[in-house]
# Entry
Amino acid sequence: MSHFIHTSSKSIRDIALSSDGEYMACASQESKIKLFDLNSKGTIKTFSTPQGIPSWACAISASKNDFYMGVQNGKTFIYDVRGGDSPASEHATTGDLSPVINLAIIPKIPTDFPFGGFIVCKLTSVYIFEFTSTAGETKETKLVLDGPFVFMTYNQTSNRLLISSRNNATNKTAKYYFGKIMKVDGVPIFDYDVSFNGSSVTPVMTRCALIPTADNTLIAGYQHDAKVLNIYDTERKAKLQCLPVTEVILDTCAISYKDAIFMGALSEQKCRIYRINSSQYKF
# Structure
């Protein structure tokens, strides 16, 4: 029997899972976000945004003690799951009030981020907030990248970040930037050594995906003008495969099951599942 969890009566903008797969949260156009226990299918806690601002993005810390919420006016709130329903801290970016579209939590990295931090991807800019102490103080750094941005995802294990942007006056095609977060002379940067070109038109915001393999990382992204799902190889720095599709792929994700790697591709009508050939990195 299938199980369903009613998350919201309005459109879902973002979904967050805890690293152990036990907790889930969904950001929608509502001013509240529910945190669910996937084992019991019950609600753990409900978080309300200050002033009823619609939520756009969410993230759950590895400890599951902290919940991050990005909202329409560009602010990010951090809640203590064990505490009350008011935010424990509030973080605003300097000079940019555009909505937060994605959040990612940086783990403690002794050489660069001893207290950890988080990344805020907005429609028009991307910021790193570094925790500077155990008390939760943060330092804000804006990354040098051209937007407008569509999606961001971060792999904590490999410290690899993927950011996608729309085509603009500078870049005639959409872009996929892939690299790592690090510091140079004490300043956080996004050191992307790989970038791929996407579609020349981006009428709909679509989500790309990182697909980790045993010794490589692939990127999957939909190309509007060619109506294909592209697979990029970050080691070879080249496009690996084009999968024809008949409708817009809105979201993609990596799926690991019984030592096999799959890719899910979601459209308005279908959910396609592709299996990777591990020797050729093709689906």
Observations:
- The first strand starts at residue 12 and ends at 17.
- The two ends are 29 Å apart (CA to CA).
